[in-house]
């Protein structure tokens, strides 16, 4: 099976129903995408498929074989992603950091689709869980980013 | 040559065979001694081994610091980073004295060794101890290293030491204008003995301590670059997944479909483990799918099996058992004569409060990677908060000497108390056994569902409280029985004639001037595995006490804030903090009142004294669609003195979030000896939409440095519960709030 990951075509040897998360982590060796719950509840595994955030832990790899997958490893190659990372650092968002790959990708997807989201639009998009409770810092970073 | 010790090579040839490892390693020099002091009870105290006796923890510079050719510094932290920001704090403290900017540090967790036993002769990342227990040690290490660099420069330049000074990373001979970088001097300096005494920079001259220096890990954590334990990889490793007995103590018997599962894609082998079955496979997903396909016949625990889970155990039943457990228990605090004072009180009120079992819910599921090397050593990558204790336990599990066990400690993807030694709650014994069985390195990952099944729970807490109120409406007597068992008793031994501190912390030794008091523990063992959870006993006990305090105030027709102030009249530190939080919130007002959005709201207040710090908390709530909404939380926090204001504030916010999560949503419900749910979603944790604004004021009263990571939590549940009572007139005595539907308001 061929996958397009971070702009590169890669051949992977995995059963069609293997969750994309485990193909990314185990076949491609990209460990920035995290396993949290395996049930699309926490969002730690979020990656982008054709620019849309998806929960890779429940997404069969075969379902995204024709889509461009973006993982955290290439986030700074995207100008919006780079801005998000800069805002995350400026607002000192991460604590343990485990959920932040998914948070950064979710934020990037929102801002690429809607450069100046409202507070309500931010709240509707930024729904990933963070057990360290970095939610206020994420909200502050998003407010700044939403100013363009 | 950097001042360092030999390192493990980066690339590890294996060819699927036990790895051949050179013994040129630092860990061999200082191993395995575990001296636990006054903090931990006798069960785990071991005599110091001879090597340990020679090493004074926190003094040998090369154990902690390496100055590298590029002028950056590597610091080996005695404590593990899991979000608290301690690696940054240590870079600030050491850098301040050493004269290297904090951003020139990289920090990693030190291996087991006597050098790092800095918490009363032991080491663990917990009790909010990391910075406060090592602040002076880190300062002295930095100062000693700088002194050694100056000595080396004096020798090299043939000038008196007193004629030299430093700028960040450089020794300067001002008279001649000559300079030498630290990296040029490191090898020469490493050969010197650290000085016995060195002058320390005065607080007023601090450049980095006390400043909001950016976290060292912010970029790596925003770009997915940090390697957590679950990401660890060695050549030739296989992956493993387990299925545990549904009830603790059960053992696997027949497997109906073993041969079919062995034929599944990627499967290497199927294993029976104590209380579990495992599949080892080429990939973890294959292992998980296979192990969950196994149809296992579980044999119930044999009678008398320690900590076997009864088939009829339920959390609801346990609550009733705790409530019915007879007092009077073992006294933890006794002042005056509470029983007599209750008899003569003009009014007596009583209430029973309880808080449920909780899971840790750290987002990184537990894992362990084990590799047996050809030299007889066992190498382990495992999440842990206590390197030496895990080394000892792994040695026992593996049947080898502790100095044959090499422990790697990655940053933790959250912990909150999850990664202490908890017997069957730690995956590493399974990984050790599997790696031995297959003759290759094995990384075991527990699925989230297995984690919910075997996590060490925050114990359920219950207290029976009675107060006697005098004719002026003031509390004269308090009589409290905290029923249950603390994780300290479970894991470090119980003293049958003594109340356990962490069972009663938050109820005993409160600062209020209540003349007659008796606080006791009624010991009752919990059937489930229990563990430490952020702020431990305080996580529930301050809720039990501070909520009841408001009931006492109401019964005496006192405002709960004013009553607290009055009873703290001779406690200036507490009184000032209470006034600070009121001021931060714009002045105390209990309500109910109407907010600008038209909603009806009220506020509650609570105080707590956790881990050497003091905290005062106010919360503002409303009711929407029958549920509690928390709009704002104000926290005045006095940890004595601090290193990094931004990190301290972030820790308070984080603790507020977890405290609020436990107040609003969380409970681990058991039925028939099993958890009712085994993943997030069904087990709700605080989502972003329910996070309040959090306002923090740090007060540095100058008292000895207290803890930071945990103290922000305990005030939140009672402040919210007290606000809800003020708003609705409904006094909730059982958490979480999601169990209660609120009409109207």
Automatic annotation (TrEMBL), chain A:
Keywords: 2Fe-2S, Iron, Iron-sulfur, Metal-binding, Oxidoreductase. InterPro entries: 2Fe-2S-bd, 2Fe-2S-bd_dom_sf, 2Fe-2S_ferredoxin-like_sf, 2Fe-2S_ferredoxin-type, 2Fe2S_fd_BS, Beta-grasp_dom_sf, Diverse_Oxidoreductases. It comes from the Bacteria. GO terms for molecular function: 2 iron, 2 sulfur cluster binding; metal ion binding; oxidoreductase activity. PROSITE patterns: 2FE2S_FER_1, 2FE2S_FER_2. CDD domains: fer2. SUPFAM superfamilies: 2Fe-2S ferredoxin-like, CO dehydrogenase ISP C-domain like. Residues 1-75 form the 2Fe-2S ferredoxin-type domain. The keyword Oxidoreductase applies. This is Iron-sulfur binding oxidoreductase. It comes from Azotobacter vinelandii (strain DJ / ATCC BAA-1303).
